Amino acid sequence: MLPVGVVSVVFGLVLTASLAPPPGPTEADQWGTYLQAHAQKITVSQDVTAPAVARDNYSATPGIATLAAGGTNHDWAKLVLLLGGFPMTETNVTVFTRWMRQENGADNWWNRNNPLNNGWGAPGEGGTGTNANLVLGAQNAAQALHSVGGYSGIVAAFMASASTESIEQAIWASPWASGHYANGGHWSYVPVPVVSAPPEAWG
């Protein structure tokens, strides 16, 4: 039998353990209580309409592979514009396809892979040689425009995407064609049809 003092101590320890306070609220519980106490309400009128959202416009310029895959005379015109750093506008493409037709015709525009009969970089007789493919022909044509001083008027007109009349007059005035296209007398304004070149012409 335990002495009375020991029994009292044991009883006191048991009583103390049974009277320990419960654990406090967790941090999540505290946040929940705070949010409930400080809840806010927003009332929106039914007459409110959503504002129009302005979205930026965007565009994409086709690359060499895309234009070569298209394979038409209009694609080749765009390819020269692309390689020459000219704006790819409707006006510029219109003049370029007309120019190509004056040089090689529309039905055989890819002749010698040299649609503008450009002698720059194209080996062959008479200054209007043959290119290995139409992509190389476009590179040579673009380089010729920027490399020959007599073509500066053409370059400036294409860069400005000037009127078709202004660009064409620059072409006629240049030394590109010895006959100067009869100063426009040999120029056709009939819409140029879209004509595909044989796949092998593109290389």
List the helices and strands and how they pair.
Elements: H1 4-18, H2 27-37, H3 64-70, H4 73-84, H5 90-104, H6 134-147, H7 152-159, H8 164-173
Give an overview in words.
Helix 4 packs across helix 5 and helix 4 packs across helix 6 (134-147). The termini are far apart. The protein contains eight helices and no strands. Helices cover 45% and strands 0% of the residues. The chain has a domain at 64-188. The radius of gyration is 40 Å and the shape is elongated.
> What is the helix/strand order?
HHHHHHHH
Counting copies of identical and different chains, the oligomeric state is: single chain
Binned strand content: under 5%
| Portion in helices | 40-55%
- Give the helix/strand class: mainly alpha
What is the average of the pLDDT values? 86
The helix count comes to 8
Spans with pLDDT under 50 lasting ≥5 residues? 6-11
Number of strands: 0
The gross shape turns out to be: elongated
Radius of gyration, taken over Cα atoms and rounded to an integer in Å: 40 Å
The biggest beta sheet, please? none
User: What is the straight-line distance between the termini?
Assistant: 111 Å
